[in-house]
Request: fold
Amino acid sequence: MELRNPIIIIIIIVGIILYFIFSKIKKEKYTIGSKIANTKYLKNSNYYKKKIKQYHLIKKIIYIVFGSSIIFSTILISRLAKIDTIDNNQYNRDIFLCMDVSASVDELNTELVESLKETVKNLNGERFGISIFNTSSVILVPLTDDYDYVVNVLDEMKKSLNANNSTSTSDNIDDLFYVRNYIYSGTLEGSETRGGSLIGDGLASCVYSFSNLDEERTRIIILSTDNDLAGTPIVTLDKAAKISLSKGIKVFGIGTKTMNNDDKIAFKNAVENTHGKLYEHSASTVNNIVKDIESTSKSLLKNQPETKKVDIPQVPFIMLLISIIGLIISKKVIK
Reply:
């Protein structure tokens, strides 16, 4: 620990010394004797002696408390601080949530966004992003380590999914329109000609949403879909999986409960070709996928530790407060 403004202590000490010097120099009119005559009988009484003892005791307490107040006030003004060393090491792992937002995946997506919030909060330096798709892909969150922002977006996604699966209405039509379209806006561009649920296009777009693909980093995609193709994709799911593999990106897939067997097999083969894994929708899906993500390798980026001074005024402030209370109580006792 150290003081940010140690000069304050020097100033206070000089002030106290000057005070005592001038106090000694000052001449008092009466230095000895009594100012009142015929007080011998009073001073010999037990009551008087008792009160004098109390007076001297309280006087000492006041001096001690007053001195403590000066000391702790000085420490506060001088700004007591400690030196903290911040570990800036980070893991160089990037995770993208790639979500099929066609209506048939709403149940899975609702549970997924809620479960992932706690996972995001526990990240340490890793970057997280969110990409949604139907006909076209939209980046809701580019790769970032601002976890509060990611959690806020996940909350908005859940509100949107709940609103679209609820029959309740709102008095504010504009708010309802915004909430319901939050998770779908931009994802249906070109649906008139190309159809929807273009899973391969969604995955391929997510692959190229990773920054600096030439850098060595651990990259993971969490892909939620029912793999029910309803249009003409530019890139098939198998082709998108091969692109993922070529970029060193592992895909963890989560399928819906209603996914048919052929779609499940095709989805499973695609994600396993990236050295990933397919999970079926269940209560433990997110926990299992998080465990498997944690088991993937991640390199530690060793950054220079940051040293900074942090004020710690709590203890001197509390002691000053106690001293002030002591002075007030002593004053009351004297009265």
Summary: DSSP finds twelve helices and 13 strands in the chain. The chain has two domains: 2-25+38-85+310-334, 90-301. The CA atoms of residues 19 and 124 lie 56 Å apart. Residues 2-25+38-85+310-334 form one domain.
